[in-house]
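To assess whether ligand presence alters the predicted conformation, the chain was also submitted together with alpha-D-galactopyranose. Input:
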Amino acid sequence: MQYGADYNPDQWPEEVWDEDVRLMREAGVTVVSLGIFAWSRLQPAEDVWDFAWLDRVLDTLHAGGIAVNLATATASPPPWVSATYPDTLPADESGASYWPGSRQHFAPSSPTYRRLAGELVRRLAERYVGHPAVVLWHVGNEYGCHLWMDFSDAARDAYRGWLRARYVEVDALNEAWGTTFWSQRYGSFDEIFPPRLAPYSHNPSSMLDWRRFTSDMLLECYLMEREILLAAGATQPITTNFMGPFKPADYRRWAPHMDVIADDCYPDPANPHRVRDAAFQRDLVRSLKPGTPWILMEQATDAVNWRPANPGKAPGVLAAESAQSIGRGADGIMFFQWRQSRAGSEKFHSAMLPHTGTDTRVWREVSALGERLAALPALPAPGRDARVALVFDWENWWALEERDHPVDIEYLPIVVAWYGALHRLGIPVDIVPAEQIDDGYDLVLAPALYLLRAEGAAALTTFVGGGGTLLAGPFTDVVDEHDQFRPGGFLTQLGPVLGVRFEDFAALGRSSGGAMGVGALSVVDTGGEAETVRFDLDGVTVTGSLHAEVVHPVGAQVVSTFADGRSAGAPAVTRHRSGAGEAWYVATMPDADGVAALTAMLVEASGARPLVPDLPAGVEVARRGDVVTLINHTDAGVQLTLTGTDLESGVDADTWALTPQQVVFVRVPASAPHPPAPTQNRTHP
Ligand code: GLA
């Protein structure tokens, strides 16, 4: 288990470095991410290079037994780059430049940026590939974090090249984008621009490609640096730090190019759903590279500086949140940053070593965690522990949140709501695209799969045919990979499995607040209440929102019908035996109670099982191989039933009493607590 933080020794006089290493050892630090923002120190002018200080830092760390995750330092170009090469600067939608003075002020597709960054990486790589301290390479930093869309001329040129490579013939693009609409037909790729400021909606199919392109440009920057590192003979693993469910970058496409997945996660202490949301993020990154541990590359020890209000963590939360990552597959726990900065935008951000020193609660908690992790026996790799999958897909996310739909929908709250119901029950879940669904799962939830590729539909269909249980939510199977309707209506691929025929989306409206738009098609947020509908589920009255779709059963059994609204009497929930499995459809977005009730029914129908029975609220359970992590996130003591051995103390037990924020790692017998007979419900007797 690695333990450490970002280390920015360039912000400090050299006298501090020895003390840093001494205190790192005291805190149990094993590794630091070094020099992430050090470009201006390494190359103070175009033809001036200074590696001597970095040589000394690396040697000092190595002598102290601290390993290094060496950064390529390309995330914040020095002022001379921006002043000499304005073509490295990105532009906004209106063409206005972003300027230096902060960080990430580079156009990812700028050839000049890539040339300069590439040269820096080459020199770093050639100098340090053989340094014994370097165990990992940290490329860039949080690609796209602040600026993920660049509309500059460099982006324009790269976009045209990217489209040319994708479509070869411009008429193939015209077809994919449906450009006969509104006279948008292109005569050549050179007539295409990034979606800069326009009078009204951009072509939605073009927006989907634009999203793909912007994600790919960031990925190209990463790949360029990776290639340089490899060419220089780097044998250490290479990574960059992800940001969980980060919309601009399709991490699914990045993951194959990462030797180890690394993720930054900053749960908001004020968020009442903090534990659920962070668990979702950790399961998402774990699912990016199934079967391999990942690294929590950054978290805060206490408060951050970048929210409007920045409360600190309650005592014990630091360890509990770290254990959440470990339980969900992390083999490294790291922070931003080692020593709190004295200057700059992040001087109020917490660190392992606070500005107020070591006689602090943060230091004590940091050191205690380091000591505990150092003694923790090795954990098994996270394997195929989950028998439930939640479908999550970046392209679908992008297309779903485009404008001009029956109703505006936010994707993340929907998938997280369904994830939350499983998390509450203590049921392990993988978060994967539809194409990755196979018969290793008992239950698959696809709550909002608007863009459904043919391969994904085929995988879901095979899954149900083979005995799996599928839930599809509203606004699913609506468009193809170009954001175009498929011929023949909606639910054209999943309709037969679901046993329903789709008639109408029946979007739910919002009551008017009385405001008026100026001119045709102007958008005015009236601030009115969102319309809802009701239906009954096992005696629970559920409220539905967004849609109350009109679907007709074609073989499906109607579980519940809409009790009110324009769709009253139409099925709200259906279930359909199909092959050896079963497919459910829910024609609206249920409220939290509805999601919980439906999840319970699906769990029952599918044979999926919680890791421990009757999990108390606020208590978390996660599994990696034969180790189950129990975390009490509440302020009260709790008792849990689970047969196993405390990994740290060696004590055997059947019940576990956990104090507030307490964490226990329990090794369980190989057969438990997976479902006793995973296939028992598959024949639907
Ligand atoms: C991100 C960055 C770090 C730092 C932290 C602050 O994760 O990668 O450099 O800015 O945020 O929370």
